[in-house]
Known about the structure:
Oligomer: heterodimer
Number of helices of chain A: 3
Largest interface: A-B, 13 and 13 residues
Distance between the termini of chain A: 49 Å
Strand content of chain A: under 5%
Strand content of chain B: under 5%
Number of domains of chain B: 3
Amino acid sequence: MLAESLFFSAVLFTIGVVGVLTRRNAIILFMCVELMLNAVNLTFVAFAQAYGAAGQVFVFFVMTVAAAEAAVGLAIIIALFRHRQTVDLTNINLLKG
Amino acid sequence: MLLQHAASAGSHPLSGTAAEWVWLLPLLPLLGFLVNGALSLASAFRFGPDDPSADHGHATHAHPASHAEAQDAPGHHHEHGAHGDDHHPVARHKFANLATLVGPAVLGASFALALAIFFAMQGAHADAPFVQRYFSWMPVGDLQIDVAFQLDQLSMIMVLVITGVGTLIHLFSVGYMQDDPGYPRYFAYLNLFVFFMLLLVLGANYPMMFIGWEGVGLCSYLLIGFWFSEKANADAGKKAFIVNRIGDFGFLVAMFLLFANLGTLDYVGVAAAAPSLVFGGALVTAICLFLFLGCTGKSAQIPLYVWLPDAMAGPTPVSALIHAATMVTAGVYLIARSAAIFAMAPAASLTVVVVGALTALFAASIGLKQWDIKKVLAYSTVSQLGFMFIAVGAGAYVAGVFHLVTHAFFKALLFLGSGSVIYAMHRAYHATHSHEDAQDMRNMGGLKSHMRVTWILMWIATLAIAGVPFFSGFFSKDEILGFVWQRAGHSTLADTTWLGISGRPILYAVYFMGLAAALMTAVYMTRMMIYTFHGPNRTGERERAHLGEAPWVMTGPLVVLGMLSALGGWLNLPSFAKFLGPAHVLDHWLEPVVGPATAMVARGAPEIAHSTEYMLVGAAVAIGLLGIAIAFARLKPAPLVPKSQALPEEGFERVLANKYYVDEAYDAALVQPTVRLSRGLLWRGVDSGLIDGVAVNGSASVARFIGWMGSQLQSGQVGTYAWVLVIGVVAVLGAFTLR
Lengths: 97, 739
């Protein structure tokens, strides 16, 4: 049971990473980050089942922080869109050397 | 003073006497410097509008530097003709009265204290030096240098000369400088000079002497360039300073060698350890030669004498005090102080003798054709210093110090007398707004009827320096020449070789060079007197009415110095003059300090035979009188014309008038190559090219390039950053996994 759970979360995480690396839309990028977070959560839960409840506490922390992060991140994206009329990250490159 | 070791002087016969106050000797002039310096600065940095009560608007200007009047002070060329007729040239400083009170008073107090210590010493019969330690200055490993004063018979003599003659010259300055806008500054420098000079002679070790040595150099620089608003004066100051640096290098190296080989720099320790050196060895010879290099700078000997004639750009009392009586004799003091080492190095001592003799002869010959009254005296000083070095080199340390003292008397008198003449000339030219040279003897002549006191006193000094019997210079110069003759017969110097030549013929040659220099001395001094005081007056019709004697504050010190010049010989009468008073006073007085070294050089030589002695004295007297006679017979003031109408000299006279072109030769051989090297290689090559180009700008370029490379990674693309991040994570994880 543990092995399957871990394999599944690894797949989820990889999908998230590939999404972050390949997509250019900020919203999709954001969703991929959430996917990675939840892959980690799944690992925590799987381990918690095998080794005790401490892992589940972490999951609540991660979900709380992710919620706050989502709120701030979406707000930034909205502000960005209002300013530049786009959320394509290749066009947003002011901070360069 | 609280740190003073009570034990250090506990059992000395001088402890508990006035000698305990020796620290106050230099401190008094230092106090005068602080007060006068404060007065000078207080007037320089005055805020707010000018004092409305001042009647001369220009006289209250903040700083003499910005002032045309600084150039009109006496003792100074003013061919530039910059001073307008509407300008009153006098600008008496508003604190002048206070400076007059402080400046000479601290010197007088110092002199009084020196006398008290002198009398305490006379009663105490102290054979060992009285050393007073104040605090440890440089305790570094084996190197222990204390701030300490050493009082012995030699430093006592020097202190008496410095404070005594110094007081007289300070008094003279009150009159001479009275209308100078930089009056308190002048006294501040002069007091500071005396402070450093006393430090030089009182210090108990070589580093202490070096502080004084450098300090007097600084004051000399400041006072030569006292009227610094004219470039020539500032240049003369710089020249003196830079030439002296070469000598100081020698002094420093000698100190390093002394410490490295003897482990101490205290006079007492060095004198005790000196016999352990190899007699005549390379090391002791090197130490002595390096010390002597220091002397050639400070005491203006060949090859470093060139700064002293230029130093006449300073006020005349400065020339009297620093460049005749005290500072330039520091080299003689240094060798007398280091007698124990020099006695161990006959070859180095012989070098001193030869250089002294060459300088005496060379400078005297230049003095024959100078027209500037101060330049005559400057070359005369160089020449007389040569005599002193002949003496201390030949191991006649007492004779050297004796000549130092008598020279301080008569040369100070000559300089102050010339100052008095220049003062009168300047006043006369000033009254008629003429821009003639007040120092050129061609513009003088016949001054004896205008300045009787100065005339008589200058003749006394001239007879003294020319070696006319019973004047001070006669005894001291005679003693030097007698000693050279005696040393040539029997001494360590005569037995050594110098550059492959035996010492004996060299010493006989030096004796005759000394006689020749003495002859020239008599000639050029008499020439100076004839052209200045005798014959018709060439100053000018209108100016003649304004010529006159200086005020008493100036002639008073001259009278005292005149008496000293006449009677100074009584300090050390030779045996044959016993009928005049007690003989060999100075010999006995200095015996504890230089006696052993003198005996070592003399190698137990017998006293010189009386017949020989009479012959030597006869020769010296004949030479002096012959010189005066030649001058009177050959030099007629009648055909002289004022400077403005004078023709340039011809032939060898021109070579002499141009000082053998030594300055030009130095300029071409040393100064210009140095300047070219500095400009071409050091400035453009090393400084601009290597340091600025490669080191400073080069390292900046490297940093900038690395920064540019780093900045290229910052594309602003979040995707790229994410790729870098992931690759990094994979790499780290992979490294951990595969380990």
